[in-house]
Amino acid sequence: MKTKTRSSVLSVLMVVAITILGVAVPASTASAASSCYGSSCEGRDPAQTSCVNDAYTILSRDAVTSSGDWGNLELRYSPSCHSNWTRFTAWYGIRAFFGSLTGGLVGGDPWIWRLGVANSLRGPIGASGTFGAGYTNWTAMVTADGTTCSSVGVYSTAPSSSGQGGRESLGTYNAPCIS
């Protein structure tokens, strides 16, 4: 009986110690090491890799076309993956409300490519948020070698009860290419 009680007390103490002190559990491979690097990241969705964990914005510009200022275009870089991608967020809130008076909700298709590199153009691959209320979409990745260029094709989607309103181009914004 003493052995069973002692064993139960030890088990409880171990559970308490683990709860209080935590346990050293190896990090998942997605967060412990990059899931791709350089050219092996080409065409991949950054949201489906560990590349987003250390990414930061290296270029941020308002997406201004001849018809207005429609949102923010960002060029993102991940040091652990040595890769870039572009994301576009249309203005939302009161800015979107005034923009919608022109005929509908604003969205954009971002693009990224490596200057002078054939077949490096990458378009939209992912999105998050609610269209018209903080909607962001992004491109597939390209390696960060060389010079990277980005742009966004901005459009207005007309309101529709089916959600399939017509699209009207509001122009293209081309960000400066950077090395």
Walk me through the structure.
The protein is of the alpha+beta class and 179 residues long. It has a single domain (34-174), classed as Immunoglobulin-like. The protein is built from three helices and nine strands. The chain has helices spanning 2-21, 29-32, 94-100, and strands spanning 56-65, 68-78, 83-90, 105-114, 124-130, 133-139, 142-143, 148-157, 167-174. The chain is globular, with a radius of gyration of 23 Å. The termini are far apart.
What structural class is derived from the secondary structure elements?
Answer: alpha+beta
Cα Rg: 23 Å
**Shape call:** globular
Tally of discrete structural domains: 1
Largest sheet: 6 strands, antiparallel
How much of the sequence lies in strands comes to 35-45%
CATH architecture: Sandwich
Secondary-structure topology with pairs:
Layout (H helix, E strand, L loop, with lengths): L1 H20 L7 H4 L23 E10 L2 E11 L4 E8 L3 H7 L4 E10 L9 E7 L2 E7 L2 E2 L4 E10 L9 E8 L5
Antiparallel strand pairs: 1-2, 2-3, 3-6, 3-7, 4-8, 5-6, 8-9
